[in-house]
Amino acid sequence: MEKTYHGSCHCGAVRFSADLDLSEGTSRCNCSVCAKARFWKSVVPAKEFQLLAGEDSLNEYRFGSGSIAHLFCRTCGVKPFGRGHLEELGGTFYAINVACLDDAAPEELASAPVTFEDGRNDAWDRAPKETGYL
Asked: Which structural domains are found in the chain, ordered by start?
């Protein structure tokens, strides 16, 4: 069931809300940045996301094709979400860091399905051979 979650970076400078349904699935990827940061995401359309505080606290990092803005707090370094635009995902979207959802119950997180993506090889439609480290 879709509900509004609230999230933040570690220090609380960046705060957001997002309407999402964790039971519809989350994902983890093995691209070079997600694997190092252990980024666990749920993707929502832009209309389902609201930045509540901290726009001036965000730094942006882009790599590879540069199509995704990886946003992180300049104070604590946590990446609460990223932003991109892909027509196949309905246009502008936000990749919410599920671990940054402040009001998601541990039971909700534990039961959220996870799809693994082979971002390292640009094979987003399949899981990498090894997923245990993600």
From this structure: 3-114 (2.170.150.70)
* Residues 6+ away with beta carbon under 8 Å from 73: 9, 10, 11, 13, 14, 54, 57, 58, 59, 79, 80
Structure tokens at 109: 């997180």
Q: How far apart are CA 87 and CA 116, in angstroms?
A: 21
Contact 9, 16 (CB under 8 A): no
Helix ranges (H only) for the chain are 32-37, 106-111
pLDDT digits (tens, 9 = 90+) for 42-68: 999 999 999 999 999 999 999 877 778
Torsion of the alpha carbons at 124, 109, 104 and 39, rounded to the nearest 10:
-40
Distance separating alpha carbons of residues 134 and 127, to the nearest angstrom: 11
